[in-house]
């Protein structure tokens, strides 16, 4: 039996299914988790040494992003993409200054980054000890 020419759409690949003699188009990665990177806000107690400030709203990013490695024809024959759930700071006021109250009666100034949004971006740096 002769198979008719098959042209798959973007995001699909030709696969040969068991029991079928002609290839069919299927999603390249069915069931692959979606990237999900979100901003969260939590009320925390901030401490530094013997100083503290209670009930501070802190924003942070959490989620998962996709990564992959593919084969290419040019050196080094592999291409990888790694994305991490990262932050964007407020452009106008990127940090908040807080005044922590210390046991000694004095106060200590600290700053808190102001995260306005989160998104999957190309990974940079990080903990290389696990490589």
TrEMBL record:
Q: Which Pfam family is one of this chain's hits?
A: Cys_knot
Q: Where is the CTCK domain?
A: 37-124
Q: Which UniProt keywords apply?
A: Disulfide bond, Secreted
Question: Which source organism does the UniProt entry give?
Answer: Ataeniobius toweri
Stated name of the protein:
CTCK domain-containing protein
Q: What is its main location?
A: secreted
Compartments it resides in: Secreted
Q: Entry's Gene3D superfamilies?
A: Cystine-knot cytokines
